[in-house]
Every structure is written in structure tokens, then in C-alpha cells.
Amino acid sequence: MVRTTLSMLLILVPSLACFSEVAPAGDEAETDAGATSEDSSATANAESSGGAATNDSAGSSGDTDDSADDSSTGEGGGYPDDVTDVLDLPWPPDNYAEPDLPEHFESSAVQDLINTPGDNPVTDNGATLGRVLFYDTGLSANGTVACASCHKQEEGFSDNRRLSVGFEGGDTGRNSMGIVNSAYYDNGRFFWDERADTLEDQVLLPIQDAVEMGMTLDGLVTVVEDQAYYGPLFEQAFGDAEVTTERISFALAQFVRAMVSAESLYDEGIAASGDPAVPFDNFSDEQNLGKQLFFGPQGNCAICHVAAQAPGAPAPGQPRNVAIFQPVMAINNGLDMNPADEGAGGGRFKSHSLRNIALTGPYMHDGRFDNLMQVVEHYDNGVQGGPDTDPRLMPGGQPQNLGLSNAEKQAIVAFLGTLNDEVIMEDPRFSNPFR
Length: 435
Description:
28% of the residues lie in helices and 1% in strands. The chain is an all-alpha fold and 435 residues long.
């Protein structure tokens, strides 16, 4: 508990550009889901959205939903020309609903973190629609910005700018965080300040934000209705072609929840050994040292980043989460003694998963750190003690000082690099579908 510094390692990470944020009027713009009016959160209900429409497709070679009307597909199956002239989508749809995940993702400690609501499970057709919406610049007021503009696949579904650029060139108020493994945050709240109750609420806010995308919900529905390629996609996902904001939010949320990162060098090592405490055969000596520091008492990062439902190590016999690498709550990680940005209150901010963290800089809600070494150095000897600083960073009531050597700090950075997942960064299921 004394050396928890690095455990906070990623309170630093960004929110959604479509998960970024724009601050309320008078504050700096954020890049989460925009500083859009929080009153406009879309409470998706299964009836009007069709509840994530049934889809029996188990992959790109699976069967399609037999209930789909022929009007939504071309002759002999497949999408009609209205879709294929604009979009490069496989038929049958890609597999989003039943990912082949490694065993360490199946433990109860990990499964209990999933925030998927019962009325919006991920389906192949729903996530396919969400993919198109995610990449469609037509959802912004001047047709220049999409969710993907601030959540780039090659950059860990984040943005390498300190602040992202909105539809009219303005800067968002907070850094854009990576969004992989968004499904594994059990309180279900989104944005750096956790102001969105659910992912379904969150995905509509950047679209309405005055800096990010500048649309109204009525305008959004009209734009989507006017594109001929959407009718068949809504019909496949929800049973008919009706466009509603709830259905848009459901589809976008399905696509984001389907972004599960589980094929990193670390995943190969933990699958082979089953225990993060032992050296991994596929790691270098430096990477194994970094892993030892991360999980051990000297760096003690895991007390926050690999916790289960509560801070601290699991009790003997309790299932362990060795997959998600994300604090389970918003935390004040000692960036400022008197924070100008209160976040969720008291300078507390949500963090996203450390997976692909080497790709998602700059770091922290305001993008103040350019690289991971600066982040590690903050937790080593830069924590600012304030009344709301997390006590795990304040042993004996004083800011922690880990006393890590330069080689040890480099080793932790090297370990964090093993969480990069090149498969999801290049997976065509999550790429731009527009021709």
C-alpha cells in the first residue's frame, strides 16, 4: 500500500472524443463525449430500439437472422446496392457477439466488471451498424468530423494530440482517451468526470457538443434517415428501418463494447504461465523486471490497475483479474495539490485500461505528460499531496516516493509496452467501412 504510486498509472489516460470531452460553458472544452448538455443523455429502451436485434451470425461465415426482410438485402442474401455502393461490409456480418477470448478473460473477477445492459447485448448486425455510425463524418454539423476522428484505430482508439480538434477547428477541453475494453468497467459510467451514467448515454453527447460535432438529436436523426445505406442496416439490426436516437446510441455502444483487446504479448505470457508473478518465457529480462515491479510492492501499480471490485489485492482464494488493467473507480492521483479541474469531484478522474497505453499518449485528462516515462516519474516522486489525493499515494500522510532507479522506471515502461495489441489495431472489423 505504501508504494502505490504506479498503481495510479493511468488515471492519466484520456476519455472519449466521442469519448473525449468539452467542458461546460465557461470552462475549457473537453474531449470525452463532449461537454454536451447532460440533460440530453439518451436513455435507451429496448422496445423503441428493438433491443439489440437478434442476430444469429457467429462470424463472417455464420448464418444471418432468418427474420430479416428481403428488402434489406440483395437478391440471394447480402446487402443491397444502396449499402455496397458506399460501404465495404462483409456478408454475413463480422463476428462481434461471440469473441474468442482467452481463459484469463473468463474468470468471475473479470466477468463481474462487464457493464453491458440486459436490453442491449452486442450483436453482429448491431455492432456493424455502430461501426458505420462511428466512422460517418456526416454525423457532424459540417460533415468533417466523426467519432473516429478523435479515436483513431492506429492510435489505440485515442488521439495523439493533447486536445482533439472539433468540427470547426476548436480544441476539446480534455484529452481523448482510448476506448478499448470499455465494456469492463462495472459502474458503467463514462467520461473523465463520469458524468454519463451509461455508455448508451455517453455516445450521443459528443455528437451534440458545440465544439466536437455540433449536431442536435433531431438533426442527427434527419441526417441518418437521409442516407440510403442506413435503412437496410437499421433493419438488419433492429427488425425495421426506423431511425431513433435510442437505436443510434444502442448501435454505437455495441460497437464500442465489442472492442476487446486480448491479444498482446502479455496475453500470450499469462496464458502460458497462468501467474503474473512468475517470469514469462516470451518476455525480455527488462520486461519481466517491469512486470515484477508493476505487480509487486516496489511499484505496487496493480493495487489500482488490476484490482477486482475493491481496492487492494484479492483475498486468498478470491478470483483474480489479470486481464483488464483499469482502476474500478475515479481517483485523484496527485497531479495538483489544488486542481483547477475538479473532474468527478475533488480532482478525481476516471482512467481507461492500460492496454495499448504506449499508443495513447499524451497522458492524463489534460494531456500534460508526453510519454510514459514522464508518467512513471510522476508516480515515483511527483505526487502532490492534497486533501483529496488517494490515500494509497499518501503513505503515512505524505506523498509517496518510490525511489525507483532509472533502469527500473525504464523496465516499467517496457512492461507497459507488452500490453500493446497489434491485432485490434489492424482488425478490419474495427476499421473505416466507407469506400
